[in-house]
Amino acid sequence: MVCVAITDHGCGMDDSTQRRMFEPFYTTRPVGAGQGLGLAVSYGVVKQHGGSIEFESSPGKGTTFRVMLPETQNSF
């Protein structure tokens, strides 16, 4: 597996948000400020390629996402 880790030092996510964050159209932003598709689409693409997404987050401490994808021998 190949792992890409992305970390921010923002406000983090509470348990309620973590349970729903990969749902299409779920957002914590105000109306008109976003569609809530980014994580849902990312999750779908990663799963379709045999990978997984793990995360760690807590309020006030930011979030880390780890995207794991299988290695490939394809050349471009």
Please tag this protein with its features.
alpha+beta, 2 helices, 3 strands, 22% helix
Q: How are the secondary structure elements laid out?
A:
Blueprint: E1 2-8, H1 15-20, H2 38-48, E2 52-57, E3 63-69
Antiparallel strand pairs: 1-3, 2-3
Summarize the structure in words.
It is a single chain. The chain is of the alpha+beta class and 76 residues long. Helix content is 22%, strand content 26%. The model has no long low-confidence stretch (mean pLDDT 92).
Brief summary:
By secondary structure, the chain is of the alpha+beta class. The chain has 2 helices and 3 strands, in the order E-H-H-E-E.
Strand content: 25-35%
Structural class: alpha+beta
Give the overall shape, derived from the CA principal axes. Answer: globular
What distance separates the N and C termini?
Answer: 19 Å
**Number of helical stretches of at least 4 residues:** 2
Helix content: 10-25%
How much is the average pLDDT?
92
What is the ordering of alpha helices and beta strands?
A: EHHEE
